[in-house]
Design brief:
The complex is a heterodimer of chains A (110) and B (116). With 110 residues, chain A is mainly β. Chain A contains no helices and eleven strands. In chain A, β7 and β8 (71-76) form a beta hairpin. In chain B, the strands form two sheets. In chain B, strands 2, 4, 5, 6, 9, 10 and 11 form a seven-stranded mixed β-sheet that branches. A four-stranded antiparallel β-sheet of chain B has the order 1-3-8-7, with no helix packed on it. The chains are: A mainly beta (110), B mainly beta (116).
Chain lengths: 110, 116
């Protein structure tokens, strides 16, 4: 079945850029997503990218998609303490199932 | 309105109790989901309703019983749970796949369940 892998932890200093990486096995997904989960809360969609795009920029967020290598990344510019959260890479299987990575816990040091 | 509302936020129950979790959305989404999330893990799919009919049951034990009374409401009835069922239960909704758009999930804040 589909597998989505992410590194578990990332620590950055406030003001630096954060890059969270994700690799996946199935290239048939039309959309790829990044969700954010803050402590004690549900997940919220941060951004998504259509599978025929290489890059998407949305304010401080840049998503890069390398379909050949099955690699997705999320770059957060000027990272703030409020960005501390868990970030999940996710794909949809074409039906109702969303496959989540294990989540990357981002720590932002002041 | 882009909210999914879940109640209660916290629930403590004994193994012999019967309780229910409730979820409501008014975004016109016809797909609704229950997920279970343990600490430091991604959400695990439990059930999916599409057009108020159960489409997916991920081999969930029968002590969890979902119900979709209408297109806006989703319930999860709990009975004879075990301590290992303690988790954050997340409700989500989305457009049905194939109807256009990215089909992202809209999550509620979750109901944190503790089974004693």
């Amino acid at each position: 079945g589909e597998d989505v892998e992410q590194s578990l932890f990332l620590s950055v200093r406030e003001g630096d850029s954060s890059v969270i990486n994700c690799t996946y096995t199935d290239s048939s997904s039309t959309y790829l997503y990044w969700y954010k989960q803050e402590p004690g809360a549900g997940l919220q969609l941060l951004t998504y990218i259509f599978s025929n795009m290489d890059m998407k920029q949305d304010q401080r967020l840049t998503v890069l998609l390398n379909k050949k290598d099955k690699h997705l990344s999320l770059r957060i510019a000027d990272t703030q303490t409020g960005d501390s959260a868990i970030y999940f890479c996710a794909l949809r299987d074409g039906g109702f199932k969303t496959i989540f990575g294990a989540g990357t816990r981002l720590f932002v040091k002041a | 309105d882009t909210e999914v509302t879940q109640t209660p936020k916290h629930l403590v129950m004994g193994m012999t109790n019967k309780k229910s979790l409730k979820c409501e959305q008014h975004m016109g989404h016809r797909a609704m989901y229950w997920y279970k999330q343990k600490a430091k893990k991604p959400p695990e799919l439990m059930f999916v309703y599409s057009y108020e009919k159960l489409s997916i049951n991920e081999s969930v034990p029968s002590r969890f019983s979902p119900e979709c009374p209408n297109s806006s409401l989703l319930n999860l009835h709990l009975h004879a749970l075990q301590p290992e069922d303690s988790a954050l239960y997340l409700c989500a909704s989305s457009q049905v796949a194939g109807t256009g758009g990215p089909g992202e999930l809209f999550f509620g804040e979750g109901s944190r369940l503790t089974v004693l």
